[in-house]
Amino acid sequence: MKPLLQLIVVSDRAAQGVRPDATAPLLQPHVAACGFSMGEVHVVPDEIPAIEAALRAAIRSGGLVLTTGGTGPALRDVTPEATRLVIQRELPGFGEAMRMASFHTIPTALGSRAIAGLAGAALVVNLPGSPKGALECFQLIAPAALHVLRVVGGEAGDCARP
Question: What pTM was computed for the model?
């Protein structure tokens, strides 16, 4: 059975209905190909309480919980802060890998503050707000995310290559 993937879109404009979310429709066709089953998509404003509540609701189901947006240096970008309120153990390799891979295309990616970590049986990963960047980063981290979820679920005992 494929692990569940839930998406939380963090965007003031999308939450207000000013513009439609473009990330979920772009990600959706790639979710199954990367080994996941698409679940709920939630759109919330760039506010810690809203992001935290959406994260807490999503992690109850386990699996992979992705956020998009709110990871930059702007004052309204608070997704990492909300994520830290929910996760128990940070997994810094996800953010580091996304920044370095993205850096080769867009040097400003080094300003990303995206993090990832475990919250119970769920893996939470912050993706960029750009739909294209979110897709590229999702495809980059998907194999590692599957492995982490297998380890957390007791299906894989070590980190040896399959």
Answer: 0.95
Distance of CA 47 to the CA centre of its chain: 17
Q: Identify whether the C-beta of residue 126 lies closer than 8 Å to the C-beta of residue 67.
A: yes
Instruction: Set out the domains of the chain in order of their start, with CATH numbers.
Output: 5-152 (3.40.980.10)
Helix and strand numbers, DSSP H then E, in the chain: 6, 6
Residue 37 to residues 4, 148, 157, Cα–Cα distance (Å): 5, 16, 23
- Count Cβ atoms below 10 Å from residue 104 Cβ, excluding itself: 8
* Residue where the block lists tokens 């993090």: 115
| Weakly modelled stretches of the chain, pLDDT under 50 | none
Each as own residue / partner, the long-range contacts of residues 110-115 (CB below 8 Å, 24 or more positions apart, any chain) are 111/72, 111/73, 112/71, 112/72, 113/71, 113/72, 113/73, 113/77, 113/80, 114/71, 114/79, 114/80, 115/80, 115/83, 115/84, 115/87, 115/90
**Would you give the DSSP letter of residue 129?**
S
Each residue's pLDDT tens digit, 94-119 = 999 999 999 999 999 999 999 999 99
